[in-house]
Amino acid sequence: MLMEEQLYAVSDKKGKPLKIFDADWKQEFGLALVLERGNKKLVQVNGRDIDTSFISNSISHIRWIDADTILLAEEKLRIIDMSGKLLHTFNAGEAIENIIVEKAGIWVSYFDEGIGEEISDEGLRLFDFKGKTLFRYHSDLLHRPTIFSCYGLCKGKGENVWIFPYTDFQLVDVNPNDRTLRIYSVPNALHGSSAICIRGKYAYFFSPYHLPGQMLQLEIGTQNYEFLGEIKGRLRGLNPKEDYHFLNISEKDVKLCKILNDKEFDF
After folding, report:
1. What is the pLDDT of residues 18-60, one digit of tens each?
2. Which residue intervals of 118-237 are DSSP H helices?
């Protein structure tokens, strides 16, 4: 069963229409937004505008770092405080697909247009908060599925992350500390999913190739999956510590999506 809760909606004020470009949510920090009016990008945190006039107008991602700082991705990754002051900036490669920020650092995954470039060719990297590379997927792991494009990325236990890479579409649990991974096969029906979330022994997949807009549930390590329903929007899997499973972003609103499954941690 799926449940959604609206966090934010664009108001229909006169003038140029306002669109939501990207968003991030953490229960302890709140809602951070990249908004677009005309050709101008605006950054808003918990309803307050942040001055980012010194940054180019190509912001693609926004993520919380802590209660006082956020990360913005454009030509480079930039860390700013709530006044808009630039704290750090560094190059994280081309064609960024997704970003996860945690205590260990900044995870960046890449889509196919970046694979082949010096930094992006790893498919997945972990940076510290000043831009030093801590982990490289292709270089630091043995016998791993090749990432030609990283369709799915979400947080796992501890410092682990889960990915769902093209073309094999195996579900991969990556441990950056031990330089190890666990690989699980996934039914063909789930291939091409644009977002994943892992909770306990279940994986949730959103919008696979042949089932656009559908949410599906898989018991990890099996081929047993089921349909949960249809959702409109662009989803991103949330940290396991969050009460909700996905953040749902559209041009007009931001919602939280929760999956009601009392068997998640029933081992």
Report:
1. 999 999 999 999 999 999 988 899 999 999 999 998 888 899 9
2. 137-140
Cα–Cα distance, 247 to 228 (Å, whole number): 16
Distance, CA of 181 to CA of 159 (rounded, Å):
12
Task: Report d(CA 158, CA 102) in Å as an integer.
Answer: 10
Q: In whole angstroms, give the CA distance from residue 138 to residue 158.
A: 21
Query: Average pLDDT, stretch 152-156?
Result: 97
Length reported for the chain: 267
Q: Which helix (H) or strand (E) holds 205?
A: strand 202-206
Q: Is the peptide bond before 146 cis (omega within 30 degrees of 0)?
A: no
Residue 75 is predicted with a pLDDT of 85
pLDDT, position 251: 96
Beta-bridge partner residues of 235: 248
User: How high does pLDDT run on average in the chain?
Assistant: 95
Closest by Cα among 151, 152, 238, 247 to 199: 238
* Cβ contact 216:203 at 8 Å: no
**Sequence-separated (6 or more) residues with CB below 8 Å from residue 52:** 41, 42, 43, 59, 72, 80, 84
One-letter amino acid for residue 247 of the chain: L
pLDDT at 14: 63
**Residue 128 three-state SS:** coil
The rounded distance, in Å, linking the Cα atoms of 252 and 51 is: 22
Cα 110 from chain centroid (whole Å): 11
